[in-house]
Amino acid sequence: MMVSSVVLVSGGMDSAVTAAIAARKGAIAFVHVNYGQRTEGRELEAFNAIADYYGVEQRLVADISYLKDIGGSALTDRRMSVPKGDLARKGVPVTYVPFRNAHLLSIAVSWAEALSAREVYIGAVEEDGSGYPDCRAAFFKNFEKTVALGTAKRPNIRIKTPLIALHKSEIVKKGVRLNAPLHLTWSCYKSSSVACGGCDSCLLRLRGFKEAGTADPIRYRQGASAKWRKDA
Asked: Helix, strand or coil for residue 80?
């Protein structure tokens, strides 16, 4: 089967909604990357569940755990603590993994070229980036130029970021409309069992569901972030 798109799927909500968008355009292949993150096993579980949901047979799980050795991020370095979430925080947070999206995109583009796929999808969101420099639209636009210079296939492979300018509540609504498997996704930075409800990623997700007027289908630690729960 010819694959039209390669989709980077972390296992989070944004990547699941991005997969739903890509799936409407043709056959897709899924890429997941283990990079030594705290919730690596749980994210991989979510990735496989989402892939099963869409019936995706072509899956690539890449290991770049050297990012854990490089360090510099609370997501990969256990000597650093994941801070309490603060959606008003300015600047680049300690959960930023140095140049991570460039590594992820390089893997996906390599596979897309081998598969003769025309597009690489990534569920990046500027709001969700919380100051991450590699979550900006300008980064992806310029990375696409690098892809054009460094690949042999023609026409050029395009980098697609369909959620980049959306707020989390808009992503939730889009996911519901597209019947994306939001119940299978995992967003928490800290926990692999019950979502902590207190890290930046959990807070963004909870606020998004609250503003969308939809109940979040995953479980959170009892009493966590009550102000963002739909039923609070």
From this structure: coil
The domain of 121 spans 5-228
Which tokens sit at 139?
């980064």
**Mean pLDDT, rounded, for 166-178:** 97
pLDDT at 47 over 60: yes
Number of Cβ atoms within 10 Å of the Cβ of 58: 16
Does residue 232 register a pLDDT over 50?
A: no
Note whether 35 and 76 are within 8 A (CB): yes
Q: What is the pTM of this model?
A: 0.95
Amino acid at 100: R
| Residue 70: strand, helix, or coil | helix
Angstrom distance (rounded) from CA 168 to CA 127: 8
- Residue 84: how many other CB atoms lie within 10 Å: 11
Total domains in the fold of the chain:
1
CATH number at residue 121: 3.40.50.620
Closest residue by Cα to residue 15 from 204, 184, 157, 136: 184
Separation CA 153–CA 113 (nearest Å): 6
For the ranges 73-87, 91-105, 124-138, 149-163, which has the lowest average pLDDT? 124-138
pLDDT higher than 80, residue 225: no
Alpha-carbon span 154 to 118, nearest angstrom: 9
